[in-house]
Amino acid sequence: DTAVSQTPKYLVTQMGNDKSIKCEQNLGHDTMYWYKQDSKKFLKIMFSYNNKELIINETVPNRFSPKSPDKAHLNLHINSLELGDSAVYFCASSQEGASGGVGTDTQYFGPGTRLTVL
Amino acid sequence: SQKIEQNSEALNIQEGKTATLTCNYTNYSPAYLQWYRQDPGRGPVFLLLIRENEKEKRKERLKVTFDTTLKQSLFHITASQPADSATYLCALDSGGYNKLIFGAGTRLAVHP
Question: Residue B76: is it exposed, middle or buried by C-beta count within 10 angstroms (0-12/13-18/19+)?
Answer without folding.
Answer: middle
